[in-house]
Amino acid sequence: MPDVSVVVVTYNALPWVERALESVRGNETIVVDHGSTDGTLELVRERFPEACVIEQPNRGFGAGSNTGMRAASGDWYLLLNSDAWALEGALERLVAFAEAHPQAAVVGPRLRYPDGSLQPSVRGFPTLWRLATEYFFLRKLAPRSRALNAFYGARFDHDEVREAEFLMGSVLLVRREAADTVGLFDEDFFMFSEETDWCYRFRQAGWKVLFTPDAEFVHVGGATTSQNWGPLFREQLRGHVRFLAKHRGLGEAERARRLLLASLRLRGIVFPGARGRTYKEAAHWLAATSTPELLETRA
What we know:
Low-confidence stretches: none
Order of helices and strands: EHEHEHEEHEEEHHEEEHHEHHHH
Helix content: 40-55%
Largest sheet: 10 strands, mixed
Number of strands: 12
Number of helices: 12
Radius of gyration: 19 Å
Distance between the termini: 39 Å
Shape: globular
């Protein structure tokens, strides 16, 4: 198998990180830690002494991944969330598929939740219409409609090879040659939308982003973000606006900010309890911040 360097960014990654690292053992592994205080570092150093551990301030997922990739020596980067792990033979099959598709810059596997159910990972680039279908819940009116579900790959069944606009960043196999030509993650994206921007840049440069069901990984989902969801939800919103500002201009970004603001005000009314409060707080934040200010600051 070609040389694969596994990059795992950690921040209070217990209890899943041990399973993640065990599933890819035998490959060069770089763990970039962003200030864990839950014993993550101690576990990694004790159980995986062969792993390269780099500690740095938390400048976001993209920045952590970039640090790991710069330290890597492999022909391929496997960017693996700390709450995701490969099933038997999955990494070998993923690499074999990528090697057979030389125009692929990024290849993603089929993802499963721990209970075995499908975790959809094929996504469409954000547009004003697609943001509206998501944040106003329009997609739920016709779950199988392409027009209302393009943000989620038009409800693709994830049962065949598919060229994607972008793939959810939980598990990504990235060709080093392609990353060398396009560059690494844009570190202005603190968390969320960094993979969206990266896949967009790959596609603009003529590379492909491919999904294959032939390799399967498990991804818990939200194991880290759920610890501090309110601020990270706001970062998700900022990621949408930042992507549109970068690739469609400031005017489109401002329209997206207003659309998101209206949707969150509605959600704050519709949803009770903590969820509704999160939406109300996010709406207040968007209303109090201009689009240029939104783009100048980070979490």
